[in-house]
Specification:
homodimer; mainly alpha; Neurolysin, domain 3
């Protein structure tokens, strides 16, 4: 039997590449958290050099030579020698390394460096443009990044649409052909549900969430919840950034960020829980596999399922707040002493069409994604031009959510993704929402008394289940295979739709 | 005339190497400021990979081929073709690149990676050992690092002592033969001066500096002084770390750290001013030369001269506090309203043998260095064994300062340097002290009314003078050449000795 030991000459090289990539991640994290404004240009070049080096090393003759003795290039699978087979980890490792290698091999090294540099610059201009509400400031950089991403899709190759090539970067196996019916189903049931809710004469009062809440205490409470979730602060941190995110340099060093708004209690709270879900995945990867695909997360959709499961299925549930609400009241007695649990539960689950994706409720969230999916698909296919984005954005907001943002900062400029070149990333948020409920329903079947445990503040059984079922496997299975292994079925919008119909049916008495 | 344009194929390669080195510096900075404890092992490997890559690239055949057409390997100087000369920047650049290249070429790549990894680990163990006051915990790592540094000296080569090879890493041109007479002169005049002071019946009351001072306000005041010094916070930051330091990723991104002790006002204050002096040097380097020796600081001795000039010649002067003391009183009215300027000035200049180098007064400071110089020279020469360090340390403390530290944490474990492998670094602190006074005396000659300006809080003329005379030149001149260019003479202990004899003569009425 051939095992990972056979592959050591390969994994040693992969480890070096991963360390370079992790270093680049440290530089990006610092850029978002602590870097002084003037340092941006030099930083972009430093990150570009590291990413260029990692790319060069991945597509090197060394790696090609090693792979070619073990891999059938037409299938990307390990070659079984007569009387000698590969064990499952090694077979998966080879499959995934081949995937990374053959994809990277398609991109010229200079292109990789240029893309990294332009994205790093674009990101900084985007931050300014958003702060100043000036789409025009960002437009040239957006144009540059877009044309580079179209160029990239060309290098990567595709059958139907250049956008498919980019989707596959974030969610292996996903295509327009798979997403369009999924979004159609969601649209078909979510838009009528939303209309029903908006027309109900029920007013949920959530003004009390917008009182002044001390920033330091908000952060403290966020950390308390993260600790209860099992996030290990000896192997991670929580910092502030304009846009909350999670990044990992190793399973022993996972960085979460959040933002705090004195007059918006949910913002810090739910971004902590959300990023905490990502962080648990990254801390749950097996450190012995660091540097190999087995030590890497399987896809962004699965990653997002972890953050959304914690944020929504857990963090916006009655059970969760049964335990944590009295603690929140103790933390903010002046603001919450007269707000009972039912009012709080309704307020954090209030459905209301709004401008900002990251603050959207569970129901409208997917409509925000659908809008982005359609826009970026058309941008990449050349059917839409970047200068028309604000108008198209606002038009679709009207169509799906019935509202139009008053400024571009609250509209087309709100998200960092396009500045980073992450076209094809947004759909993974919806995949994450669907997978989250699919996984959570399964967890409820397999963990006896899960909701009772949660109601007692015991979140550890759930974390362990997720670690055992999902986190520790890295890229051993494809995302679809993993979903079937855990839940018995591929991605399925039904559990999510039933969940929101039941939850909001109760809250809005439909 | 051949110019920097001729050298572009070389400087392009150097720029890539510098970017990798800057990335490694970001990782080290993060390790000291924000990294969670559990991340240390992975971080050490990440830094080691980057340093190994930078080293490989510096000693590559590409660079050797480029240099060999321009450099005479026996002299390390640029070759003048008939009728064609190099301009001064290019000639200096070649001389310094050759210095770096030929030195790096002597070290095997695996050795560089091992050294980087062991130092990163040793540094983390040192931090624990210091916190727990357990020299024995650090001893194995110290032994490993020491033997690696002796191995390094062997690779680098030397005429008289392996320690000379290490000294030259930090202060080009310095040797035991140059330092021993310098320390002898200092010893000869400082020890008697110290005895005289200690025997004076004058008691300087500095207890009021050890009242509780709010940490946040201490930091605010530190930033206020840094801003007045001209430190540009758009191109730099101030953070907290166990041991204050300055690091730079580019002239547009310079990071200072300090520490804050509620019951020790001078600690944060003077470490801010000290690190600010370093930071001004790094911000004053010419960004167009980033990546080449012309964009790098000339030596640690000269670097330290900048920090000590600001910390001592300026920051512990009457003129400086004439302006800043009323502001300090306003910041801490409860603690300082009854302390007049004379008492404050005497308190911050109180001479008292003490255990901790970084808190030592200007007079005893060099005795702390002399002790370290003698110990590390003997360690590297194999005349002293690491296990004997605590005893030797305490013996020399008794001899030079008349006191013995009660714990190793306040003795041999206090400094980070040996854990980092920085043997040969300490003497640059004394060189810095001497250069600082030499430069400051020259500045007073050249800037009319300098002390009057300082007394009005105007520190900008001094910063500009330093930038023009020292910072902007990078490694254009050798440290000794620079000193002669600025002050008309090589390093000279006389200005320093006159300065301390005059200053303390007044304070202690000798």
């Amino acid at each position: 039997m051939k095992t990972l030991t056979t592959l050591e000459p390969l994994t040693t090289k992969l480890l070096e590449i991963q360390r370079i990539n992790s270093a680049a991640s440290v530089l990006s994290w610092d850029q978002e958290t602590y870097m002084p404004a003037g340092g941006g240009r030099a930083r972009a070049e430093q990150i570009a050099v590291l990413q260029g080096l990692a790319h060069q090393k991945l597509v090197s003759a060394d790696i090609e030579r090693l792979l070619s003795q073990w891999i059938d290039p037409s299938t990307g699978q390990a070659i079984d020698q007569p009387g000698d087979q590969w064990d499952e980890p090694s077979r998966s490792l080879l499959r995934e390394v081949w995937r990374d290698f053959s994809r990277a091999k398609k991109l010229p090294s200079e292109f990789v460096v240029t893309l990294a540099r332009e994205c790093s610059l674009a990101q900084q201009v985007w931050a300014q443009a958003r702060a100043q509400n000036r789409f025009g400031l960002f437009l040239p950089n957006l144009g540059t990044v877009l044309s580079l991403k179209r160029e990239e899709a060309g290098y990567l190759g595709y059958t139907y649409s250049p956008y498919d090539a980019l989707l596959d970067l974030y969610e292996p196996g996903s295509t327009i052909a798979m997403l369009e019916p999924l979004f159609a189903t969601l649209k078909e049931r979510l838009i009528p549900l939303l209309r029903q809710i908006v027309q109900r004469p029920i007013h949920i009062d959530d003004d009390f969430l917008r009182q002044p809440y001390d920033s330091a205490r908000q952060l403290e409470f966020g950390k308390l919840v993260l600790t209860a979730m099992g996030f290990d602060f000896d192997r991670g941190r929580l910092d502030l950034s304009a846009h909350p995110f999670t990044t990992s340099f190793h399973p022993t060093d996972v960085r979460l960020t959040t933002r705090v708004d004195e007059r918006d209690l949910p913002s810090c709270l739910f971004s902590c829980i959300h990023e905490g879900g990502h962080g648990l995945y990254d801390q749950g990867l097996d450190p012995q596999y660091y540097g190999t695909p087995l030590g890497d997360s399987v896809s962004l959709g699965i990653h997002e399922s972890q953050s959304r499961l914690w944020e929504n299925c857990v963090g916006r549930s009655r059970s969760f707040w049964q335990f944590f609400y009295p603690m929140l009241q103790q933390t903010f007695p002046d603001q919450l002493k007269d707000v009972n649990m039912d009012r709080f539960y309704a307020a954090i689950n209030c459905v209301r069409p709004s401008f900002i994706r990251v603050e959207a409720d569970e129901l409208t969230y997917n409509l925000h994604i659908m809008l982005r999916f359609e826009i970026e698909r058309d941008l990449i296919e050349g059917k839409t031009h970047p200068e028309d984005l604000p108008a198209i954005w606002n038009h679709k907001m009207q169509e799906y959510l019935g509202i139009v943002p008053p400024t571009d900062a609250e509209g087309v400029l709100q998200d960092i993704h396009w500045s980073l070149g992450s076209f094809g990333y947004f759909p993974t948020y919806t995949l994450g929402n669907l997978y989250a409920v699919q996984f959570y329903e399964q967890a409820k079947l397999e963990i006896p008394h899960l909701e009772e445990e949660i109601a007692q503040g015991q979140l550890i059984s759930l974390r362990r289940w997720l670690e055992q079922k999902i986190h520790r496997w890295g890229r051993m299975f494809t995302p679809d295979h993993l979903a079937r292994r855990v839940t018995g079925s591929s991605i399925n919008p039904e559990p999510f739709l039933s969940y929101v119909e039941k939850k909001y049916g109760e809250i809005y008495q439909l």
